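C-alpha cells for chain A. Residues wanted.
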C-alpha cells in the first residue's frame, strides 16, 4: 500500500510541475508592447501586396522584432494600426523607431516596378504617450518621407 501512495504522489508531483510550467510559459506569452501608429499617405499610395514595417530601436542599442503595419494604403488616406511587439518595452527604453517599406515588385505581376510610397504624416504612441509625431518635427511637419528603391527606410527619433 505504501508503494501505491508513493507512486500516486510522484504522479501528482509531475502534474503539479506541468501546471507550474504551463503557467510560466503562458505568463511569458502575455508580455508584449502595443504601440498605436497613425499614418497619412500622400499622393503616391502604398500598393496592395507591398507592406510597411516598424521596429523600435532601444537605448541599449538593441532593437525589437519587426512588426508588419500592413499595406494597400490608398492615395491621401489615413490609417490607424496597433503594432504588437513580442518584447515588453517602456517609453524610457525607446531611442527611435524605424519605418521600412517593402516595395519590391509583387510576385506574379511581371510588369510591376518598385513601388514608391509617400508617407505624409505619422504619429506613434505607447499607452497614450508620444513616441514620435511628425507634426512636432519642424523638418517633417508637412511631409515625412518618400520611400523609393534607393530609400527604403527612415529612422525617426523619440521626441
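Reply:
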Amino acid at each position: 500500500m505504501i508503494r501505491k501512495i508513493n507512486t500516486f504522489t510522484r504522479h501528482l508531483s509531475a502534474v503539479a510541475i506541468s501546471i507550474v510550467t504551463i503557467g510560466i510559459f503562458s505568463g511569458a506569452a502575455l508580455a508584449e508592447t502595443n504601440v498605436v501608429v497613425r499614418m497619412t499617405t500622400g499622393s503616391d499610395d502604398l500598393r496592395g501586396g507591398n507592406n510597411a514595417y516598424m521596429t523600435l530601436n532601444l537605448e541599449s542599442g538593441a532593437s525589437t522584432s519587426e512588426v508588419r503595419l500592413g499595406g494597400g494604403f490608398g492615395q491621401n488616406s489615413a490609417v490607424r494600426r496597433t503594432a504588437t511587439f513580442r518584447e515588453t518595452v517602456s517609453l524610457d527604453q525607446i531611442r527611435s523607431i524605424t519605418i521600412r517599406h517593402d516595395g519590391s515588385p509583387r510576385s506574379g505581376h511581371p510588369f510591376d516596378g518598385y513601388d514608391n510610397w509617400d508617407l505624409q504624416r505619422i504619429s506613434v504612441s505607447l499607452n497614450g504617450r508620444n513616441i514620435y509625431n511628425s507634426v512636432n518635427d519642424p523638418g517633417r511637419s508637412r511631409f515625412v518621407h518618400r520611400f523609393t528603391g534607393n530609400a527604403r527606410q527612415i529612422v525617426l527619433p523619440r521626441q
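Residues 2-29 form the longest helix (28 residues). The CA atoms of residues 58 and 95 lie 5 Å apart.
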